[in-house]
Amino acid sequence: MSFGIGDLFWIFLLLSSLQPLWQRRQIEYRRFRSIQEFQQQRRSRAILLIHRQESISLLGIPLSRYITIEDSEQILRAIRLTPPEVPIDLILHTPGGLVLATEQIARALIRHPSKVTVFVPHYAMSGGTMLALAADEIIMDANAVLGPVDPQLGNFPAASILKVVEDKPISEVDDQTLIMADLSRKAIQQVQRFVRTLLKDCMPKQKIKPENIENIVEALTTGRVTHDYPVTVEEATEMGLPVTVGLPRIVYDLMELYPQPQGGRPTVQYIPMPYDDRRPLLPVPKGRPLEEPNQRI
């Protein structure tokens, strides 16, 4: 039996179609082994909530990921499957998401009897910060950030809607804005009440000093900064949050297994190895030295 060029073409096409499936299986296996190793090192239940920008089918249309009801269902199931005496480690990389889903996860975390630790390798904004507030310890990279949790109504911050009503005479404000202001006031009160509940959590022990709770609520929920304001490690520590700096190496290795889908030319490139400063010496110039040009400021 002989093979022709046409047969080789079809074999090549078959292998090419199977390659993405094989690669996906490989990375899923590596993720499973890394999570298993992390759990063995920490003697805990590891849960990952990582949101990258995905691509829809073959169209290449970017789709932003965020915390959804499906996420809350999966995380609540993982928490239910965790024995009461086993700590929970939650690795967060998210821009936030739905308030309902976030609050469900946060309530389940503070109800877990053992220690809950949140790891933030890069950022956990908005709803991600709310999940971090539910933890007994927040372990962050030195350059990682959290964010405010002030409520947003559509495309507008609730605090800004209230400011419009405060600054303008009531006769000059339309009915829709007044309705939005009423909803904004309720939303801010609800978020403040919930954040206060998270910060007062004392299971297995008190994590926030009582005198710091109201300052944290004021800083994160009142909209005194923009919603995308980065709360650095230093600022979070100054507020009184239980922040520890320095992630285990395995957390970074896990993040490498959730790469951003590439499309076209990469926007960041570097040689993936420790920087070596032992550079070869430049040859000594011969002849008279060049005149230095006049410098201007």
Automatic annotation (TrEMBL):
GO cellular component terms given for this protein: membrane
Gene3D superfamilies according to UniProt: 2-enoyl-CoA Hydratase, Chain A, domain 1
Protein name stated in the entry: Serine protease
Residue segments, region Disordered: 278-297
Pfam family of the protein (one): SDH_protease
Biological classification of the source: Bacteria, Bacillati, Cyanobacteriota, Cyanophyceae, Nostocales
Superkingdom of origin: Bacteria
NCBIfam families noted in UniProt: Clp_like_SDH (NF047768)
Record's compositionally biased regions (Basic and acidic residues): 288-297
